[in-house]
Amino acid sequence: MVEKRTLVFLTLAMIIWAVSISGLAGYFYLQNETHTQQIGENQQSLNRTASNYDKSMSKYNTLLSEYYVLYRSYSSVDANFTLLMGPFGKLMDDLGGNYSLLLMDHEDLNRTYYTLEEGYQMVYQQDNITSGNFTKLLNDYFELFNSLEIRELSIVLSETVTLAVSVGINYGNQTVEWHNETVVPAGFSLFQLTQEIATVDPRYDPLAKPGHIFIEAINDKEEYIAHHLGYSEGCSWLWYYWDDNKQDWIQGPVGCDAWMLKDGGVYKWSFEYWRWPP
Amino acid sequence: MRIHSFKTRKLALFAILVALCLAIQLTPRPPNVEFTSFFTFTVGVVFGVFYGGFFGCFVMFVNGFLSPYGFAGLVMPFQMVGMAMAGVLGGVYRRLIPERIYSARFCTETAIVGAIIALIYDLVTNVGVGLWFVAGGTDFALAMLIAIAYGVFFSIVHILSNTAVFGILTLPSIKALNDLVGGGKIG
Prior knowledge:
The complex is a heterodimer.
Chain A: H1 4-75, H2 81-98, H3 100-105, H4 107-124, H5 131-158, E1 162-170, E2 176-185, H6 190-197, E3 200-204, E4 213-218, E5 221-222, E6 224-228, E7 231-243, E8 248-251, E9 266-276
Parallel strand pairs in A: 1-9
Antiparallel strand pairs in A: 1-2, 3-4, 4-5, 6-7, 7-8, 7-9
Chain B: H1 2-26, H2 36-47, H3 49-66, H4 76-96, H5 103-135, H6 140-150, H7 152-181
C-alpha cells in the first residue's frame, strides 16, 4: 500500500510533467500557426510580384514595339529625320506616361528624362535635323527606357526581396563611419543607399554615363576643387566596392546611381585627394 | 537577555543569507539557473512562513533594479510574488515534515518541491509578461498563451536546475542552519 505522502509527491511530479509538456505543445502550436501565416503572406506577396511583373513586361513590350517601328523608319535609306520627330515625341510622351510614378519617385531618372525632353525640344526647333542629332536622341531614349524598366523590375522584386548591405564613410581624417547590415529593398542603387544613411548633396551631370550623379558632400563634408595652370587638384567623394574574389577594394566604375546593390555587398565612400593630370 | 541574544543571532544569520543570496543572484549566470529560490525555500523552512516570504520578496525587489539582465520593470512585482511563494512553501513544508524521514526520501521530496517552486514562479512571472502584452493590445488568452509557450524552454531549464539544486543542497543546508539558530530537529 502506497502511503498518502508518497502519492501527493507523485501527483506533484505528474503536474510538473503535464504542465511542462502542455507548455511545449503550446509552443509548437504557436510556431506552427506563425509559420502557416508567414507562408500565406509569402504566397500572397509572390502572387503580387508575379502580377506586377506581368504588368511591367506588358508595358515594356508595348513601348518596345513602338520604339521598333520608329527605329525601322530611322534605319531605312531614305529616312526623313524631321518627319520622325513627331513619332519620337509621341514615344517620349508614352514613356513619361507609363513610368510617371517611377519618374516622380526617382530624382535621378526624372532628371535624365527632362534632359532628354529638353534635348528633343532643341533638336525639334532646328530646321535641318541631322542623322547624328536624331541618333543621339534615339540612343539616349533607349538607354533611359531600359534604366526605367530595370528600376521598375527592381521595385517589383523588392516586394519580396530585401538586401542587407554594409557601407562605410571615410571622412579622410581617420574617421570611418560604418553602417553595417543595413536592410534595403532589392533594386536600391548605391546613391539611394547613401541617401538613406547620410545627408548628401548630389550633382547631376547629363554628360556622364552610366549614372549621372556625383556626390559633392556627405554629412556636410564638401568636396573642393582648385584649378591651376596646367593641372587641377582637390578632394572629392569616391566610392568603392569590396571584391570578394580579389579581396580588395575596387573603385566604382560607374556613377553611384547606376550601381545596383547586391545582398551582402560592402561599399565605401572615401573623401580623397586627387590631381589631374596625375 | 537570553531571548534577545537569540533574536540577534537569528537576525544576523538572516542578513547574511540575504547578502549571500543577492550576491549570487546578481552574478552573471546561465538564464534560469538560480539559487535564490533554494535560499528562499531554506529560509522559509528554518525561519518560518513570514520570514521566507519576506526574504523572497526582498531579494527579488533588489534584483529587479540591479539584475545583470537589466531593470525588471513591470514584471518585478510578479517576480516578488513568485519568489515569496517559495519562502511560504518552505514554511509550510517545515510543518509537514514527519518526525522521522530518510535522507534519500527527504532529498527526493525537496527535489520535487524545487521543481514545483520553479514551475509556480515561472507561471506567475509569465502571467506578468502576458499582462504586458495585454497592455500592448493583445487579446488576453493569446497573450497568456504566447507568454507561457515562448517561456517554456526557459521553464524547463529552470525546473531541471531547481530539481538538482534542491535535491542536493537542501538537506545539508537546512541541517546546518537549523543548528546555527538552535531550531528543533528536522527529520
